[in-house]
Each structure stands twice: as structure tokens, then as C-alpha cells.
TrEMBL record:
A GO BP annotation: regulation of DNA-templated transcription
Antitoxin FitA-like ribbon-helix-helix domain boundaries: 3-40
Region of interest (Disordered), residue spans: 56-77
Protein name per UniProt: Antitoxin FitA-like ribbon-helix-helix domain-containing protein
Organism ancestry: Bacteria, Pseudomonadati, Planctomycetota, Planctomycetia, Isosphaerales
SUPFAM superfamilies linked: Ribbon-helix-helix (SSF47598)
Pfam families xref list: FitA-like_RHH (PF22513)
């Protein structure tokens, strides 16, 4: 797994991160990994939301079949 180096982090931020890690019972490295993983997931979620909204706008003027109606037809077969 690759390493990441963060330069020029101010002392106050580092102390807050260390305090957060202590409060969660984790090492500083584990806390930073979790923060970065959560940030990466949020970025992915924002991208997915944007794509879904784009798709919704693109399909807005089309007629869509009622899924309940289709399920009923399938069950009657």
C-alpha cells in the first residue's frame, strides 16, 4: 500500500487530530486513514448523485411504466 506524506500541517491541526484519535481509541495513522477513506467515499457519492440527477433530467420528458403494474403482469403469467 502506498504511503502519503502531508507537509506543512500546522501544529494546532496536528494536536486536534491527535486528540480525535485518542478520543476514538485509535493511533494517529489509523485516524488519518479513516478520515481520508471517508472523504474519498463522499467524493464518490457526490459524483454518483450528480450522475443520477443528470440522468433524471435527461429522462424527465419520457413516459415511464409503473413497476407495480409490470410486477402484477408477471405474477399473473
Amino acid at each position: 500500500m502506498p504511503d502519503v506524506l502531508v507537509r506543512d500541517l500546522d501544529d494546532a491541526s496536528l494536536e486536534r487530530l491527535k486528540g480525535r484519535a485518542r478520543a476514538h481509541g485509535r493511533s494517529l495513522g489509523a485516524e488519518l486513514r479513516l478520515i481520508l477513506q471517508q472523504a474519498a467515499r463522499q467524493a464518490d457519492l457526490a459524483t454518483a448523485r450528480a450522475r443520477a440527477e443528470q440522468m433524471t433530467r435527461r429522462l424527465a420528458d419520457r413516459r415511464h411504466t409503473d413497476g407495480v403494474e409490470l410486477l402484477g403482469e408477471d405474477r399473473r403469467r
